[in-house]
Amino acid sequence: xxxxxxxxxxxxxxxxxxxxxxxxxxxxxxxxxxxxxxxxxxxxxxxxxxxxxxxxxxxxxxxxxxxxxxxxxxxxxxxxxxxxxxxxxxxxxxxxxxxxxxxxxxxxxxxxxxxxxxxxxxxxxxxxxxxxxxxxxxxxxxxxxxxxxxxxxxxxxxxxxxxxxxxxxxxxxxxxxxxxxxxxxxxxxxxxxxxxxxxxxxxxxxxxxxxxxxxxxxxxxxxxxxxxxxxxxxxxxxxxxxxxxxxxxxxxxxxxxxxxxxxxxxxxxxxxxxxxxxxxxxxxxxxxxxxxxxxxxxxxxxxxxxxxxxxxxxxxxxxxxxxxxxxxxxxxxxxx
Length: 336
Prior knowledge:
Layout: H1 8-12, H2 28-60, H3 79-112, E1 121-128, E2 131-136, E3 145-148, E4 150-154, E5 159-165, E6 170-173, E7 181-183, E8 189-193, E9 199-205, E10 217-223, H4 225-235, H5 245-256, E11 264-265, E12 270-271, E13 286-287, E14 292-293, H6 296-304, H7 306-309, H8 322-333
Parallel strand pairs: 1-5, 4-10
Antiparallel strand pairs: 1-2, 2-3, 5-8, 6-7, 6-9, 9-10, 11-12, 13-14
Helix pairs in contact: 2-3, 5-8
């Protein structure tokens, strides 16, 4: 953990560092939110300790009141004036703390939602049950491309997300980089953040959206600007043509089954939009929105019986012979 995170609460939660932890920030906005949260935690902890110390002192010093023989005459209480001062001071302190909380929250919100002067990278995110479509926009329409369930971002450059939902309410959340923002059907929301450090972080839908809500994740790969530019150039190229007879057979299997009705592959006669774009599917880290690692064995099981791997998924089963499956796996494995 870097020195900037060695706060009192930070020391208590060092074991919580993970790719999907808001307690281990790696972005400009998430760092400000983390600092605000730890500051509030420290203030609340000190306040709690002071209040309990005063309570313990009062219990220790408590005295029994001696009633006078004449009931009509009330005894003078020397502590009454001091008690009134304490109540007044505590009330003022409460108001000051409330002002600090409100002012700090307002200041951080203004900073994390401000528009950067640097032209941001623009990405349109469409949420569906239960996967993510990422459209990298460009002023030249032919340079726009689509990926699924995986974001690549350049370190140090602000990113502006346009958030939409096709079906129900979802929530876009990358805890290590920013707070969450809902995606509401019929409404367009935006979210912006600047990743500072390279690495791979996990994003997640943070709004219950149905049976497979827990398996609606995505990877965020933050890399150097040069590595990002190389990745973009690769994504803009059409799918690689089959390099051998087995992969050519696999392409025929893909086009002959129902796959093109839902999936798109650039450069091939497959224009479906109901499912993820498969142009460079072999280069992705996972399958089915973070449900399975992208290996040949898991891909085979996902193709044949996706409902077994992810119950409730919209993708139907695809029965085929062993030879067809082998050829199809070889073809998809070449789409890097």
